Amino acid sequence: MKKIILSSFLFVTVGFIVSAAEIVINGNDTMQFDVKAFDVKAGEKVSLTLKNSGKLPKIAMGHNIVLLKKGVTAIGFGQKALGAGANATNPLPDSVKADAIAWSKLLGPGESDTVSFTAPKEPGIYEYVCTFPGHFAMMRGTMTVK
Ligand code: ZN
Question: Which of 10, 40, 108, 121 is the most buried (most CB within 10 A)?
Answer without folding.
Answer: 40
